[in-house]
Amino acid sequence: MIDYIVKYYDQILRMLLDHGKMVAVSIVISFALAFVLSVVVRRFRNLSGVVLTVFVGVYCIPSLALFAFLIPFTGLGQVTAIVALVLYNQIFLIRSILAGFNSVPSAAREAARGMGIGFMNSLLKVELPLALPAILGGVRVAAITTSGITTVAALINAGGLGVLLFDGIRTMNFNKVWIGVILVCAFTLLLNWGLSVLEKRSLRRARGER
Amino acid sequence: MWQYIVENRQLYITAIWEHVLLSVVVIVAAVLIGVSLGIFSAKFPQWSNGVISVFTFFRLIPSIALLILVMPLLKTGFVPSAVALTVLALPAICINTYSGIMGVDRLAIEAATGLGLSKKQIFTKVELPMAMPMIIVGIRAAFIDVISSATLAALVGAGGLGIFIFRGMMMNDMARLLIGGITIALIALLAELSLALWQRKYSRFI
Amino acid sequence: MADEYIIHFDNVTKKYKNTSHPAVDRLTVGIKPGEFITILGGSGSGKTTVLKMVNRIIEPTSGTIYFKGRDIMTLEPDKLRREIGYVIQQGGLFPHMTVEDNIALLPDCLKQDRKKTRERVRELLRLVRLDPDVYKDRYPRQLSGGQQQRVSIARALIADPDVLLMDEPFGAIDAVIRAELQEELREIHKQFRKTILFVTHDVQEAMYLGTRVLVMREGVMQQFDTPANVLMNKNNRYVAEIVGNRGEIQRMLMLKAKDVAKPYSPGDHGPQLDIEADMERVFALFMRDTSAECIVLTNKSEPVMTIWRSDLLSAGKSHD
User: Fold this and answer.
1) Which of A115, A128, A132 to mutate to test the interface with C (most CBs of C within 10 A)?
2) Which residues in chain B have Cβ-Cβ distances shorter than 8 Å to A151?
3) Residue A115 and residue C152: Cβ atoms within 8 Å?
4) For residue C207, which phi and psi values (nearest 5 degrees)?
5) Model ipTM?
6) Mind listing the pLDDT tens digit for each residue in C278-320?
7) C93 vs A contacts (CB less than 8 Å)
8) What is the value of pTM for the model shown?
9) Final residue of a domain: which of C196, C226, C248?
10) Strands (E), C94-161
């Protein structure tokens, strides 16, 4: 197995990078979209039920089906994968952004309002740091799920580590399969660890334990 | 599309049945094992660290990897997929059960003890009901994942609606694919909504 | 609308939808600069609503509120709030910021000179009896309830506002610390002559701190007068009840010595008490020192008034 890695390591590296790229890009776009949607939902409370149900529904659609549905519009490849991933992530991110902002102590929010520092200042300097731990928790869950679905995206020519898995199965090359599995797990573990560190740090800061 | 369903009714129904059976079996197993382990960890704190760490680790493994991992050991088919998916569902249920029980208001337990209830009664009448919302959240998340991942199980011989999707993809048959996808989505939605209702029933008082 | 008022409520009503009666019902009061107004009432009396309407946290349904002569609804809310200090019961300190950053948040947001701000923070911490070097880098969670409220007060004073709004700030503090904080607040008021609006449900606190007391009940103003007049009110049953159900004697004990004393004439000799002392201290002193015929009330060691033992029994009768 080791010689396989050595022999094809540039290809493996490329798949790893593709995988990472898809995860990173989708998380960034997902977050931006989720943030906007959260602000809208906060402003128009009655929309919250609709928005959340829609995205729960989206999440219920199996990944391959959603990919397949998008292919006529966005073709095969990474773009389709990213669009699908952004849609899948909304349910986690919107929920955790809303939960985060709800967890800001109301006394602090009212004090900030009474001080007259303004909406933006209040949002960025008071509410966001206090909401961050919950938000990052959601980002972490989204990232993990994204990584998993990205693996499946290999089936629609998006590249990524899933290629090793599916190719390996197809050609009965178990070396490939094992490498694929190990790399996927390692990647996810690393991602989880990194985001956990950020999450814990933001929690300490929110509690004033620095 | 409707025509397709009518024509292949038997195949369609079998596929639904396989898919649902797999999901239900997995969830039941995962609930039985997961909730027990969760309660165990909550009651025996020395083990909690180990159990929770293991499950937090397993939570990270993508479903596809799990399905593939069992192949060398159990070959392909219904049972291996069921095992893999159970491992997929366990972490969420176990961890949520643990958190749910640990998160029960200590004051409520103290009050119950003060009333003279036995440990078993406190558990069944106070702790468990109060932990239920959290537990149900875990089951909800796990169930959706299982139903979705059962799609992939078609790849490793477990049948189910995933077959429609794969065949549809390979043969460029949009109708087949959509039927598979939409049916799975509907099943998942149904499960999600019923569990949500169940959860609300429990959360009414909290 | 008189120019002499710094805050003026003109027929102000606040009614929420789906409620039977208004939270605040046609309130008209004028508050002069430098007054310490305690707003007294039970829960549901509207006292907190009144307070929160001054800085537009809550907006009136009808009527006008004037701040320094201007209708507050014509002012930009944030600008209004920067001129008014706001202290709430739970403190509302930001847990993720140090004491220093908490107090300095407003000036920092306004991009004011940091060095000057830091100096002012030290000044304010000293004012609220917290050693700046010890406390400025601490986090709220490291502070006791009383210390947190001190920081809240310092924070409210950072912009040197003319008006301070306080919503039951000492409600969650234990009795010993509460007494300390009340004293210090009185000192601050004496020193800086700011206008303070202080909401409380504690009768004693309202009487002790306020120069005038606004008694509220179910949104309706019951009385707006000096503590002495409120305590002695026999006309309004509700007021008499909330101040008087503690007994005639206790009511009298809440009076201040200066309300009962007579002007000082040279030749009056006796033990001395500060002019702000309440009747309880006066009684205690007379009981301890049986030979004393009178007590001299002093302001900064200068004799101002005299209270005679024989005046004690007529304390309930006449007052200014």
Assistant:
1) A115
2) 62, 64-65
3) no
4) -70, -40
5) 0.79
6) 787 888 888 888 888 888 888 877 888 888 888 777 655 544 3
7) 108, 111
8) 0.78
9) C248
10) none
